Amino acid sequence: MSHAKPRLLAALAAAFAASALVAAPASTAEPVRPMAVVWADEFTGPAGAPVDPAKWRHEVGDNVNNHERQFYTGSTRNAALDGAGNLVITARRENPANYQCWYGTCQYTSARLNTAATFTQTYGRFEARIKVPRGQGMWPAFWMLGNDIGSVGWPASGEIDIMENVGFEPSTVHGTIHGPGYSGAEGVGAGYTLPNGQRFADGFHVFAVDWAPGRITWSVDGVVYSTKTPSDLGGDRWVFDHPFFLILNLAVGGYWPGDPDATTVFPQTMVIDYVRVSSGDRAGPITGLAGKCVDVAGANTANGTPVQLYDCNGTGAQQWTIAGDGSIRALGKCLDVTAGATNDGAKVQLWDCNGTGAQRWAISGARDIVNIAADKCLDVTGHNSANGTRLQIWTCTGAANQKWTTP
């Protein structure tokens, strides 16, 4: 969110400015992929109940760095269950306890919750179904910060903004990453705009990122609108390969949204139906050229066994797990580039999983399977669809022998 931490907790470094904005692309919905949910909050409980302290902790204080106007409290007046399966974060024009802010006596209260002490994860799918507030000066966000922020500071910790909305853009949300050299106004991201003048405050929408080594993809209601990789950073450091924690908050005012005005009605609410985190793991066959499958030759688990193209037969030699850590696994071992080579024509094999670049892969929206270390595509040698044809890595060309359907 490029939100600085509240002043009473730990100040970050810079104020936020708007990310790059693009209209909603002509895109189809992302295919539904089975994933294991590893953490979730469905916000079930009686009306007026606080959030589960085993999952969320309140941040309390103001925020000078963004020049926001609210004081974040721990009160159920600002964050409570509604009894209908939702968490409601409420921004109010009030000051019940003479709270003091950077600009003097605070004018507003709201809430900010995080999982820093209760849950962190590296990679996977992070999603929430949210109905945002409306009005000038409103700034709801669903985002993540690196769990090393206390030791390395921001932006070196990294920040992944899954969804931000500012009240003067009722039809648009933003997804952004921030890191060293690309923080604040230099954050790298994009916006998604609803078609036909629809407004996000009129209903619930699902906001998500799919995060894998070297790749973060944003979607709204299953429609992918942005993907960022290290190549988008202009040589700056990618800081998204360690655990992050979740944040939900509703800010009032600040550099980016501007302050509320006479048109802004209070109270305003950010309603969250659920937050879910999946491992990112999914399993099944990988099919490619001529509808054939990626196959471990002879179902042999020995290190160095060739990986080839073969008629699909449903055996374990063709059951691959696309793992959240960027590896692709079968028979208990990993898809591996022989000797860690990065040249065109380097053959692919099965090998003990070791976390090296030779075993780190990213799946693009264009159906490429890219070896991250080599920045090259999984390729059927010679465009040959015969059974037993070896797989290799090759400069990505967009040709049919580099296109794959994954679980």
From TrEMBL:
Molecular function in Gene Ontology: hydrolase activity, hydrolyzing O-glycosyl compounds
Pfam families per record: Glyco_hydro_16, Ricin_B_lectin
GO terms for biological process, alphabetical: carbohydrate metabolic process
PANTHER family with a match to the protein in the record: GLYCOSIDE HYDROLASE FAMILY 16 PROTEIN (PTHR10963:SF55), GLYCOSYL HYDROLASE-RELATED (PTHR10963)
Alphabetical UniProt keywords: Hydrolase, Signal
Family: Belongs to the glycosyl hydrolase 16 family.
Record domain GH16: where: 44-283
Superkingdom to which the source organism belongs: Bacteria
SUPFAM superfamilies xref list: Concanavalin A-like lectins/glucanases, Ricin B-like lectins
Signal peptide: 1-23
InterPro entries in alphabetical order: Beta-glucanase-like, ConA-like_dom_sf, Glycosyl_Hydrlase_16, Ricin_B-like_lectins, Ricin_B_lectin
Protein name stated in the entry: Hydrolase
